């Protein structure tokens, strides 16, 4: 998997216990075109500290342009920003 760490626009919901669940996100391509990706399945959820910042990592899979892809999304807890981490 290649590391991107690109910010994305995310649509998610919050469970009663405060856990964020991503539903779909928008990603800009090299041509400045927006692509909407629906998250089909979340296979793993982990937590790490990066330079003292709490990060949540979601390993997901979706069908993108007809191909099933596995990728990782990161949520920075202090700023609530979502990133496409690896694909």
Give an account of the 3D structure.
The chain is 0% helix and 72% strand. It is mainly beta and 87 residues long. The protein has a five-stranded antiparallel β-sheet with strand order 1-8-7-6-5, with no helix packed on it. A three-stranded antiparallel β-sheet has the order 2-3-4, with no helix packed on it. The chain starts with a strand and ends with a strand.
Condensed summary:
This protein is mainly beta. The chain is built from no helices and eight strands.
Secondary structure blueprint with pairings:
Elements: E1 3-7, E2 9-14, E3 20-28, E4 34-38, E5 41-50, E6 53-64, E7 67-76, E8 81-86
Antiparallel strand pairs: 1-8, 2-3, 3-4, 5-6, 6-7, 7-8
Please name the defining characteristics of this protein.
8 strands, mainly beta, three-stranded antiparallel β-sheet, 87 residues, 72% strand, five-stranded antiparallel β-sheet, single chain
């Amino acid at each position: 998997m290649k590391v991107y760490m690109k910010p994305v626009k995310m649509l998610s919901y919050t469970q009663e216990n405060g856990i964020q669940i991503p539903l779909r996100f928008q990603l800009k391509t090299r041509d400045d075109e927006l692509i909407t990706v629906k998250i089909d399945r979340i296979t793993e959820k982990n937590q790490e500290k990066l330079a003292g910042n709490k990060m949540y990592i979601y390993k997901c899979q979706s069908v993108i342009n007809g191909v099933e892809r596995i990728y990782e999304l990161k949520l920075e807890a202090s700023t609530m920003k979502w990133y496409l981490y690896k694909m």
